[in-house]
Design goal:
The protein has helices spanning 14-25, 40-47, 60-64, 80-87, 95-100, 116-129, 163-166, 193-201, 222-226, 283-298, 303-312, 340-350, 371-377, 388-395, 407-417, 439-473; strands at 7-10, 30-34, 52-55, 68-71, 92-93, 107-111, 134-138, 156-160, 176-179, 212-216, 232-237, 246-250, 254-257, 271-274, 321-326, 329-333, 354-358, 378-383, 401-403, 423-426. The protein is of the alpha/beta class. It folds into 3 domains: 7-93, Rossmann fold; 97-312, 3-Layer(aba) Sandwich (UDP-N-acetylmuramoyl-L-alanine:D-glutamate ligase), CATH 3.40.1190.10; 321-459, Protein-Tyrosine Phosphatase, Chain A, CATH 3.90.190. The strands form 3 sheets. The chain has a 9-stranded mixed beta sheet with strand order 7-8-6-9-10-11-12-13-14. The chain starts with 6 loop residues before the first strand and ends with a helix.
Length: 474
């Protein structure tokens, strides 16, 4: 082991590679480690830049001799090597704290169980349509430190932040922090729901009294956490349950903020944004638009830019995305729904008579959370992946469940069951990693199978018509 002190980057994913390159550019001595031997290609790229790597194994001494450890979000903090390093007093941090040392422009950070990517994208587009240069990063896909390696600078950074990233963000302090919602998720990573909730609320912990905290007023047990929030709270919801606090009230066709004193507003007056022509549908998306609206106003966004975005924004790939219609049956791709609350919201958007494709890798998921929504809206469940047994145990008493081993089998089974007017909805409530490398790969497979099925049925229909025509000629 080298005598010279070094920073250890644990994890050779997208963020780990970017952090290593960034710190090397800053003149730091770096070692990168990843227990996955398939990361050899990424490791070779770093080795060519003079960065030492260790792949396919972990060395205890590499962790214990590090000056600091920067851990990728995918690695649990109770990992035995990290635990040994922590016991020795070695600082363990993450990408957002590295970025915090270099930030010199305003930052909006967005977290929550569901809707993070949608709201992060909405805010970015609203600000762009307001004439600002925006860098969008974080859990949405682009590592935060990539900004500091760009020649072109932005006016503002908009970052999606997961709970895993917050767990290693001891210094990160966004100017505007958004907490969209908190429902059960990642219970395989946290000891219980309360630990997960605490992680989400920590987005506000380093804010000052001049910063903005945007909070969904329907979050349960918010009062005990609000006592620790030093920044200015602004709420959003269908009702103003905190009359003494600033709140954006959500109506079916508009969002109203009363007495909202931001620097870009000449006076404290009522601000209204029209959402009557919004491309996004559903109550949860009205909440998403409200959160984005407040965040944009807080940093200089314009009502015109906000309304333009609301009218043009149609949603994200794999999030309640239309995949096609076959024989009067709509097929909807909601592969991004990796927890039960996201599934409930998708069911609400899709009406009734739904054939629900459910399952994947469980995160200690409580499928009983779906009972009421399934009773009300689902006619059949098609279960797939590692969680099939759990799904059957939780929901078989209230809905007929058919098992499928592949996405093709699931789509073909749904086609056989469905009647005109039904909806086939892929909304798994689970991670994808039992069968796919990502939720997007799972969604792509669903769309591919729908397209192939539609093509096959169309070809069959044309053949049948030709037979009928030939008989008429006879």
């Amino acid at each position: 082991m080298e005598d010279k002190k070094y920073i250890l980057v644990a994890g050779l994913g997208k963020s780990g590679v970017s952090i290593a390159k960034f710190l090397k550019k800053k003149g730091k001595n770096i070692i990168v480690t990843d227990i996955d031997p398939s990361m050899a290609v990424a490791a070779a790229e770093l080795e060519n830049k003079g960065i030492k790597t260790e792949t396919g194994f972990h060395k205890t001494e590499t962790f214990l001799n590090a000056d600091k450890i920067i851990v990728s979000p995918g690695i649990p903090l109770n990992n035995k090597y990290l635990a040994m390093a922590a016991q020795k007093g070695i600082p363990i941090t993450g990408e957002f704290d590295i970025a915090a040392e270099f930030i010199d422009i305003p930052v909006i950070a967005v977290t929550g169980t569901n809707g993070k990517t949608t709201v992060t994208t909405l805010i970015s587009e609203m600000l762009t349509n307001s004439g600002l240069k925006v860098f969008t990063c974080g859990n949405i896909g682009t590592p935060f430190v990539e900004y500091f390696m760009k020649d072109e600078k932005a006016d503002i950074i908009v970052a999606e932040v997961s709970s895993f990233q917050l767990d290693t963000a001891g210094k990160f302090s966004p100017d505007v922090a958004v907490l969209l919602n908190i429902t059960e998720d990642h219970i395989n990573r946290y000891k219980d729901f309360y630990a997960y909730s605490d992680s989400k609320w920590s987005i506000f912990k380093n804010q000052s009294q001049n910063d903005i905290a945007i909070i969904n007023n329907s979050i349960k047990e918010a009062e005990k956490h609000l006592k620790a929030v030093k920044s200015i709270p602004v709420f959003f919801g269908r009702e103003n349950i905190y009359p003494e606090r600033k709140t954006a009230i959500i109506k079916p066709d508009k969002i109203i903020i009363d007495n909202f004193p931001m620097d870009n507003m000449k006076e404290n007056k009522i601000s209204v944004v029209d959402i009557s022509g919004a491309g996004l549908k559903g109550e949860h998306n009205r909440e998403n638009m409200a959160a984005a609206f407040i965040a944009c106003l807080a940093v200089g966004g314009t009502i015109r830019g906000i309304e333009k975005t609301i009218k043009s924004f149609k949603g994200l790939a794999h999030r309640i995305e239309y995949a096609g219609t076959i024989n009067g049956v709509d097929y909807i791709d909601d592969s991004k729904a990796t927890n039960p609350d996201a599934v409930v919201k998708a069911l609400e958007c899709c009406g009734n008579n739904i054939i629900l494709i459910l399952g994947g890798r469980s995160k200690n998921t409580d499928f009983s959370y779906l009972e009421q929504a399934v009773k009300k809206r689902v006619k059949k469940i098609i279960s797939m992946g590692e969680s099939k047994t759990q799904i059957n145990n939780a929901l078989a008493d209230i809905c007929t469940i058919v098992d499928a081993d592949t996405m093709k089998q699931a789509v073909d089974t749904a086609y056989k069951i469905a009647q005109p007017g039904d909806t086939v909805l892929l909304s798994p409530a689970c991670a994808s990693f039992d069968m796919y490398e990502s939720y997007s790969a799972r969604g792509d497979d669903f769309i591919l199978n729908v397209k192939q099925l539609k093509k096959q049925k169309h070809k069959k229909t044309k053949t049948n018509l030709k037979i009928v025509f030939d008989k008429v000629q006879l």
